[in-house]
Design brief:
The protein is α+β, with helices and mostly antiparallel strands. The protein has a domain of 140 residues. 23% of the residues lie in helices and 35% in strands. The strands form four sheets. Strands 3-6-7-8-2-9-14-11-10 form a nine-stranded antiparallel β-sheet. It has a two-stranded antiparallel ribbon with strand order 1-15. A two-stranded antiparallel ribbon has the order 4-5. A hairpin with a 5-residue loop joins strand 10 and strand 11. The radius of gyration is 20 Å and the shape is globular. The model has no long low-confidence stretch (mean pLDDT 91).
């Protein structure tokens, strides 16, 4: 499931989105007023601004037999988006996140994240980070890789396929199937993973192609001082690369047109 290997850049990577989220103890000043000073620091790279109120899941309180469902508060989510729409910063009272739908390589992503944190930390001075996570959402399209008709068992390693990897089971016989896993990994990280076939929407239109979705959220928790943020991110990135390398077959690796990373 985990594979140590050389690192590759894929010309036809199948990443729909990459998200880095860093959680910190709640800072009340963030939702209390518009983040004008922070915007000025990042506005050149992220000129588009939106403010959203997001409803949180309801809270269940009380003892068994007398449970109560209480409506949770709404949170203020400030969004800053690059001119081309490919990069987005989200800021709330308890986390900052950087995401992109145009991921090319870790060095570019890490450089943007370093700059973002260098602007964020002096303004809001979080005491420490409680959670540092990277989420890689792969949506593997056989059509995009010129692999139409190729069964997923030829592209994905058996432990990520479960029953779909059995030779006597037809892939099209599954109406719905997927694996959801949470586990400890090496380096002090944890993994939340969803793996399985599915269909996705393009805008408001359902794409009829069945794709393989590999959604990996790798994270570290605890009281992580600011100076440990970069090493923690490097650790979760290494784990993410090992998990993806362990998930794919040589055929999928070759179809994505790899080149060795510098």
């Amino acid at each position: 499931m985990f594979l140590d290997r050389d690192r590759y850049i894929y010309r036809k990577n199948q990443l729909a989105e990459v998200i880095c989220q860093l959680r910190f103890p709640t800072i009340l000043s963030i939702p209390a007023r518009e983040p004008a000073e922070f915007q000025e620091q990042i506005r050149r790279d992220y000129p588009q601004y939106r403010r959203q109120l997001e409803q949180q899941p309801p809270k269940i309180t009380g003892a068994p037999g007398s449970l109560r469902v209480e409506e949770a508060d709404k949170i203020v989510n400030y969004q800053f988006v690059s001119e081309d729409g490919r990069w987005r910063v989200n800021l709330t009272g308890s986390f900052i996140a950087l995401s992109t739908n145009h991921y090319q390589r870790w060095e570019e992503f890490a450089s943007r994240l370093d700059k973002l944190l260098a602007d964020f930390i002096p303004i809001y001075r979080p005491s420490y980070f409680e959670r540092v996570g990277l989420r890689y959402i792969n949506v593997i399209s056989r059509k995009a890789l010129d692999l139409d008709g190729m069964p997923f068992r030829e592209l994905i390693q058996p432990c990520f396929l479960g029953l779909m990897g059995e030779d006597d089971v037809r892939e099209e016989s599954f109406g719905r199937y997927g694996q959801d896993v949470e586990m400890q990994t090496s380096g002090g990280c944890r993994l939340k993973m969803h793996a399985g076939p599915g269909m996705v929407k393009k805008g408001n239109t359902q794409d009829p192609e069945v794709k393989f979705i590999l959604d990996n959220d790798i994270f570290m928790t605890g009281k992580l001082p600011m100076q440990q943020c970069a090493p923690a991110l490097q650790t979760v990135h290494i784990q993410a690369d090992r998990i993806f390398a362990g998930a794919m077959t040589q055929r999928l690796h070759d179809a994505m047109e790899p080149t060795l990373a510098d």
